[in-house]
Amino acid sequence: MKVVRPSLSRWYWIAALVGAAVLQGCGREHAASPPPVPAAAPAVVERHADFAGQPHSADAARLAEWVVRTDDHRGQAFAIIDKHEARLYVFGNTGRLLGAAPVLLGAAKGDDTVPGIGDKPIPEVKPEERTTPAGRFVAEHGGNLRGEHVIWIDYDAAVSMHPVLTTNPAERRLERLAAPDPEEHRISYGCVNVPTRFFADVVLQALGPVKHPLVYVLPEVRTLAEVFPGLAGGQTTARAAAAPPLQALGKATRPL
User: For 205, phi and psi rounded to 5 degrees?
Assistant: First the structure.
């Protein structure tokens, strides 16, 4: 039988096709992968305090800005009390002011409370001991014997924030609230008296849902940096501190 051999040209084309396939496969196997497309970094939202056009002191502005910028308020509504101006500012969780109002404060100037003052009978409290303490307070909700909702700023010192007390007409607390001179607002034993409507419509609406709202009280004797050391470097102060346990309401028997 005669064997028909393929021509050289046919072998040439077969070898060329096989070689091309091999080279093509190698090319796919060793081709460099395209560089990965980096994921877009999440946008950083830098928050700032917004007083919504309300007048305020430079210290109040500096403290509010620090609280919001460092998230010291833990993304919750908070309050600032300016003792120099005898004024309360309530902020929402984004740092925008929800409302401001005049307040009554402790009759004596000072940024500290006397140890054990919360357990002293009222007749034993000296005039110079009737101070509203300054600082960062992890507050708590409670009530008093008149059935009012109060916010304990410092339970151990019996200092709370509550609707203005008008049981003693001689003290003229409503007139004092309306007075333009902050000195006229010094009358209480240390508690912060708030206009009744403002307390219900702004304070409780904003701080009521917060289990332990933060209340910042500006100093009037010491410097801002002494009371809030984190201001210098932008650090938060005691953010991880445990909230105080809810207390019995025995101190509500004291005049506020």
Answer: -65, -35
